[in-house]
Amino acid sequence: EALKAVTLNAARVLGIDAEFGSVTPGKRANLIITDGSPLQPTTQIKGVFIAGRPFAPESKQTRLYQRYSERLAPPAE
């Protein structure tokens, strides 16, 4: 019910549930792939599909995290 509240029910409130809000033939395929519940703050987004096209789940924050985590890694021997 919590996931439905932020997907299908939200689309209904906005009057766009004919195109958005659920995975149904004929609707736009805007999806995320996660490693856990999308409602948990520790869950990481592993994939993004917008209008059915895949996009890398990258942002300025993920690039900065990667850059600085590499700097903190112990040197390879």
Keywords:
alpha+beta, elongated, 77 residues, single chain, three-stranded antiparallel sheet
Task: Write up this protein.
This protein is of the alpha+beta class and 77 residues long. Helix content is 32%, strand content 17%. A 3-stranded antiparallel β-sheet has the order 1-2-3, with no helix packed on it. It starts with a helix and ends in a 5-residue tail after the last helix. The relative contact order is 0.11.
Residues in β-strands, percent: 15-25%
Largest sheet, order of strands side by side? 1-2-3
Instruction: State the helicity in percent bands.
Output: 25-40%
The termini sit apart by 51 Å
Topology:
Elements: H1 2-6, H2 8-14, E1 31-34, E2 45-50, E3 53-55, H3 60-72
Antiparallel strand pairs: 1-2, 2-3
Overview in brief:
The chain is α+β, with helices and mostly antiparallel strands and 77 residues long. Helix content is 32%, strand content 17%. Strands 1-2-3 form a three-stranded antiparallel beta sheet, with no helix packed on it.
